[in-house]
Amino acid sequence: MTMLEDIVKRGQLAFEATLPTYARREVSPAHAIGHVNLEPAETLPNIYLPEERQREMCLNCPLADCVGIERRDCPIQIEQRAEWRRQNHRRATQ
Hints:
This protein has 94 residues and is mainly alpha-helical. It has helices spanning 3-18, 29-32, 51-59, 75-93.
């Protein structure tokens, strides 16, 4: 190791020695690099409204111009979020 790496490593060890046991690292930083788990803890289900319902909402859209289904203020997306909340609430109360 170079002199700078030695200084940093000693500083990290000194700092971690002052931490309570629950906050200390289980694996040293050199071993943890490249082994980070980036997978989400739980995949959220995609909520799809029936095509008929989407068409009905699109034809009765209160917005002056179509903003696209990708935008948060699209009524279809608002309805999808509401359905997701209803399903999530049911799952939480079971």
